[in-house]
Amino acid sequence: MNKPQQFINLLSRLSRLVNHDGHSKGLKPAQWDAIRYLAQANRFSRSPGALTIYLGATKGTISQTLMTLEKKGFVAKTQDLHDKRAVALKLTTAGENLAKEDALKPFQRMLSDLPANEQNDITLALEKLLLAKLRSDGNKPFGICNTCRHFRKNNQSGSPHFCDLLKEPLCDIESEKICVEQTPA
Amino acid sequence: MNKPQQFINLLSRLSRLVNHDGHSKGLKPAQWDAIRYLAQANRFSRSPGALTIYLGATKGTISQTLMTLEKKGFVAKTQDLHDKRAVALKLTTAGENLAKEDALKPFQRMLSDLPANEQNDITLALEKLLLAKLRSDGNKPFGICNTCRHFRKNNQSGSPHFCDLLKEPLCDIESEKICVEQTPA
DNA sequence: AATAATAGTATCGACTCGAAACATTATTAT
DNA sequence: ATAATAATGTTTCGAGTCGATACTATTATT
Fold first, then answer.
1. I need a labelling partner for B76 at 20 to 30 A (CA). Which of A10, B2, B13, B38 fits?
2. What domains lie within chain B, and their CATH numbers?
3. How many CB atoms lie within 10 A of CB B69?
């Protein structure tokens, strides 16, 4: 088997397994993807639109997935205050509990059984691969807020940081989350 | 973001992208998975049952996928000679042409744009990860026939090799393919 | 010969997915 | 201001996935 073919085989089979683990606790893989995202996105990013970009899906599909998650009681929708078109998403308590018991935990446990150096190699390789793919597709990275070029740190404890793009204050917690607008410095 | 969470994020997002690339040329990801498999499986493995195990799906799902692939003219079914329950699968010429233009080619091209050592690191990491997962799930590896403990090599050119498990002769081409029964030596 | 195991198919309901049409609400150009 | 345009979501459609379950036909076992 030649190298490129092997790479495709590994990738497609691995993806299959990951996807398969997403059939868990009565949810579907796509629903887990959404919950996982919402558990980590900052307030500028908890919208159907941002989720759509993150998951590389279409608006319609995401709308459906969010509908069923809302019906199941894991996600709550509220209207955005500033923009009446926009919808603000939030995990309910049930949704947050679910996020803590991620369907991919078994995968994670499996990794933690490997030698520490292999764990590192694997994580690093995945990161390189993902970033290369995102770049080649022109996708947004959705990195951590406080690693963004628009992030303005405030060193006085208690007072908030600041996003220079959206002109909005940022508490510590929010600035640790992922953001649609994040652009590496 | 802690390490385990990062790993899950990388893995799930990467899988999403891989899956997404499978919506190509009018086929679905699962259909590509089937075609990719059939293009590489030896004659003992070109059956709905083996494909089911390989993809980690259920019989019913695979039956459906194969039905639509047959309807589209990419797969042909014939009855097995020895076992009248069994179905032998084969890619049609159209199916083989499709396999040569795999939906994941863009991903492969992207990899080939990376430095050679990174390509290697990434492939190796994927392999480790996949094997660890297969092991932890108790899945079969589907390795290359001639790396199997039951493979008996014949060094006289022209005469076939042999599978000591299934008691069947193996030509060079078949012994280079993947097999359900493969067990590392 | 009866029973169990195996290989597949058929059917169901919930869901995904892209595509396209459709509101609403914001933004921009005139 | 107001009209054109862009952006945010929703709805609907058809094809397909997926697990679960029930079912058929064939082969193996007892």
1. A10
2. 21-103 (1.10.10.10), 145-175 (no CATH)
3. 25
